[in-house]
């Protein structure tokens, strides 16, 4: 497993880059006493500055209950080595089991909001304050959040940019196709002017 | 370039799978007379059934003007061979030039809403009816849409599922990291139970 000591702060104006390419993420939440982690394939940035994101979280989930209580959540971006864990925490409810204990997940409290952050095996995280939008939360399960802190593993996010190479494949982001099938962010291409 | 004759309809209950993994897409629009194509990295499904998506389109764009006029848009998913075109149409405004003419883009009218659809070099498309949500359109440039028709190239989307292999790399979806740097959806991994 990768070592969390490689995490470095990401400037907030670069935070949208962490999810710009559509990775499947882990959503962590806590109300101060209880905590949870789930997987989410549906998220996107909506603004660079201030850095804001949207994420779809089913209103029936334990995570939504905890987010409603705290007004906060975090997004942790798993690397390829966490593909089994990502699928596992996306397939069980935190109402039924403590997924941190069950899967031996280590979390550290976020610097701004105290959200549980996963670093081991992850490529990056973003700590977010919920922007209450009751209509979209109800109608589309879509929650908006403002990123208030972010960090990334310096072996794969270098000088404000992702660097996916053959040397860091365990930290390549994963993108869920459905049914436990994922692809990795690999095979970089640089566009050329037409 | 790939041949568009490989496009086959995608059942609407499978349409969310086309964008589940976060590809960068082309947004096409038309008001019946004028038309446009732009790139968008920020989109996601929000519901399986009915199939609904959210996409961020800056309110100052020509595309937003055309969508407001027609209440419709399409999402075309470029394959890796269109990386230069994707970056090009994302870097110029349709107010300044006819991008279809400038880049020699062939489009066919969509079956439900008549939106311009790109097939050559693309892996899939989704024709969408705008769901008017003035607050999120204004506050977050986030537009919601319901997918009313979808199709995909049968060489890369097989029996309702993406199949990215070494045989169809030109149709692998692309995911923008920023500054014209893209990664491809490659290196499939199947998650195993923990």
From TrEMBL, chains A, B:
Its cofactor is FMN. InterPro entries: Flavin_Rdtase-like_dom, Flavoredoxin, Split_barrel_FMN-bd. Gene3D superfamilies: Electron Transport, Fmn-binding Protein, Chain A (2.30.110.10). Belongs to the flavoredoxin family. Keywords: Flavoprotein. Residues 17-159 form the Flavin reductase like domain. It comes from Aromatoleum petrolei. PANTHER family: FLAVOREDOXIN (PTHR43567:SF1), FLAVOREDOXIN-RELATED-RELATED (PTHR43567). This is Flavin reductase like domain-containing protein. The keyword Flavoprotein applies.
């Amino acid at each position: 497993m990768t070592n969390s000591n490689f995490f470095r702060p990401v400037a907030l104006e670069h935070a949208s880059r962490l999810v710009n390419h559509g990775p499947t993420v882990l959503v962590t939440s806590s109300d101060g006493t209880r905590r949870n982690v789930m997987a989410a394939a549906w998220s996107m940035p909506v603004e660079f500055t201030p850095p804001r994101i949207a994420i779809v979280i089913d209103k029936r989930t334990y995570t939504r209950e905890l987010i409603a209580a705290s007004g906060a959540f975090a997004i942790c971006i798993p690397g390829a080595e966490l593909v089994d864990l990502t699928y596992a925490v996306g397939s069980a409810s935190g109402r039924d089991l403590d997924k941190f204990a069950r899967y031996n997940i280590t979390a550290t409290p976020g610097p701004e909001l105290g959200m549980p952050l996963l670093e081991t095996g992850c490529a990056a995280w973003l700590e977010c304050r919920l922007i209450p939008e009751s209509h979209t939360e109800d109608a589309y399960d879509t929650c908006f959040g403002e990123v208030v802190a972010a960090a990334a593993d310096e072996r794969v996010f270098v000088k404000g940019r992702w660097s996916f190479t053959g040397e860091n494949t365990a930290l390549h982001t994963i993108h869920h196709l459905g049914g436990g099938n994922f692809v990795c962010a690999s095979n970089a291409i640089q566009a050329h002017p037409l």
